[in-house]
Amino acid sequence: MVERTSDRPLAGVRVLDLTVALSGPYATLILAALGAEVIKIESPGGSDIARFNPPFAAPDGRMHLDALGDGDVSLSILARNRGKKSVELDLKHDRGRAIFLDLVRTADVVFENLSDGVVERLGVDYATLREVNPALVYCSLSGLGRPSARPGTKAMDIIVQAVAGVMDTTGFADGPPLRFGLPIADLLAPLHAVIGVQAALAQRERTGKGQHVRVSMLDSLASLLPFEHLDVLQRSGFAPRSGNSHARLAPFGVYRTADGYVSIAAANDAWVASLFEVIGRPELVDDPRFVGRGPRAAHAGELDALIEEWTAVHPTDHVVAELAEARGVPCAPVRSALDVLGDEVLAERGTIAPLHDLCDRPLDAVAGGVPITMSGADVSVDAPAAALGADTDSVLTDLAGVRVEELAVLREHQII
Q1: Residue 240 carries which DSSP code?
Q2: pLDDT tens for residues 131-184?
Q3: Which of 48, 116, 186, 357 does the annotation list as catalytic?
Q4: How far is CA 210 from each of CA 30, 68, 136, 207, 235, rounded to the nearest angstrom?
Q5: Catalytic residue check, 186
Q6: Residue 63: exposure state from Cβ atoms within 10 A (0-12, 13-18, ≥19)
Q7: Would the CA dihedral through 2, 414, 108, 146 be positive or negative?
Q8: Cis previous bond, 55, omega within 30
Q9: Cβ distance 23 to 190 under 8 Å?
C-alpha cells in the first residue's frame, strides 16, 4: 500500500489508472515513484494484457517461460505495478461505472491508454468525467494519435517504430531497416505523458481547472527525427542508416577490439589529434580528408577503417586506457546488458532495483527504477506489486462510499 508521506513530490495526488500493456503502466509507475497514490483498475479477473507476458514467476519463486499456470504472475506485472493499489471493477456494468464516477470525484488524475473508442463506449471519457470533476487532469496515451494517423492499425511498439521512421534510421546502410533494441515508443511516450500531467497539475494550481492531456507514441518518436537534420543530410548524400557510426561527427562510432568493442566519440579537432597520436598516425592531422568536421564527415568510412586497424589488435582495456584515461578522448567499452543489470553503482542509485513477488519475497530478477534523485524528496518504487484486487474493498469503502454489506452483492454479480 502506498503511503502518502510529506517527503514525496506528488504526495496527496490521487491517480486512477486505467492503463494496460507497457506505455501507460510505465507512466503511472513513474507517478507512483514520485509519491502519487496510484489505483490501478482492472476488470474482474484482470484485463491488463501484460498478465499473459512471459516469463512468469511461479508461487515457489521459480521463473519460467512455460504456459501460464495457477498462481503464476508475469514479471511484467510484478515490475510495472510496483507501488500501486489494485482494484477489480467492471466498468461495463452500470453500478461499476457509478462507483468509478464516485472515485473520480476524489481523484486528481485519470490515466488511460485503451484502444480507440473504448473510453467513450464505457462512458469514462474526458468529456463525461470533467462534468463530474472539473478539476480533473485526464491523460490519454495512444499509439498513433486520436484520430489515428493510420485508422484500423493496432499500435504495437514495433508498428509505431515502423510508422515513425525510426526503423529507417536503424541498421547499416546496405542492410534492411531494423527494430530498435528496446520498445522505445512504449518507453518514451510515457515520459512525455508524465511531463504533460505534471504541467497540467501545476496549471491547475493557478486556474483551479483540469484539462485533457494527449500524447501518442507516434508523435513522441517522430518529434525526435528532426534533431538529426536527416532531411538535409539525405539531400547531401548521406544514407538514412549509418550502422555503428555517425558520419556527421566522425570519428564517432563503435570499433572492434581484440576482445570486444569500444565506443569512441572524438568529435573535436583536439580529440582527433590525440586519437591519431595513439594509433601511430600523427601525420593524419594534416591530411585534407580529415581537417575539420566537414571533410571528416565526407570521409568517415576511411577514417573508421584506419581507427579499427589499431583497435582490432589491442584489448579493450588498453584502448580505453590510452584514449580515455591517458588523453581524455571520449571512449568506453561496449558492455553487455547483463553487465549493466548487475552494476553495483546503478543498484546503489536505485536505477536497477531488485524485483519481488506479490508477497514481497525477492526473486532472482531485477526491474528498472525511476532514475531521478532529488535533494529534498524521496523518489522510489519500493513497494511490491499488489495482488489483483487486493485493495478493492478498502478503496471502494473508503473513497467511493460503498457500504461494507454491499461488497458481497457486488461480488455475487461479478461487478468486483
Answers
A1: S
A2: 999 999 999 999 999 988 888 888 999 999 999 999 999 999 999 999 999 999
A3: 186
A4: 20, 41, 5, 8, 45
A5: yes
A6: middle
A7: positive
A8: yes
A9: yes
